[in-house]
Write the structure tokens for this entry.
Amino acid sequence: MKIVLDTNILWVSISRRSETHWIFRAILDGTITLCVTTDILDEYAEIMTQKLGFEVSETVLSTFDHLPNVKLITRYYRWSAIKADPDDDKFVDCAVASDAVCIVSEDGHFKVLKKLPFPKVNWLRVGEFTIAFKSKLTNLR
């Protein structure tokens, strides 16, 4: 299952005590394919360094660099879908370019995706993604 993961979901999921740790484990064990762009990796590095420290950030990103299921995507078009927070557009662009099943985020700015006829990008909150993943629901498209 190919997904795009918002930065805040990623850094919180790293802790074994987090309810969302299963997402991080699923990336590590190859159950989930994580799609990223260089812009997303830069944001991951910045926020993880702020929240968790440089060593954790470097370890996570180095691990991602060696995982075959972490796919570096080249975005060829900027959709400018998130008018309220253009910085979030990188996640939409990555989802479109990678044909990801969804973007997983708690950020309400992604709500606009539910109204866009094109490009079709699914946005799921963590709870919705958990249900979809556990039921092996992959027909979100």
Strands lie at 2-5, 33-36, 70-72, 102-104, 123-124. The helical segments are 7-13, 21-28, 38-52, 54-66, 89-98, 126-134. The chain has one domain: 2-134.
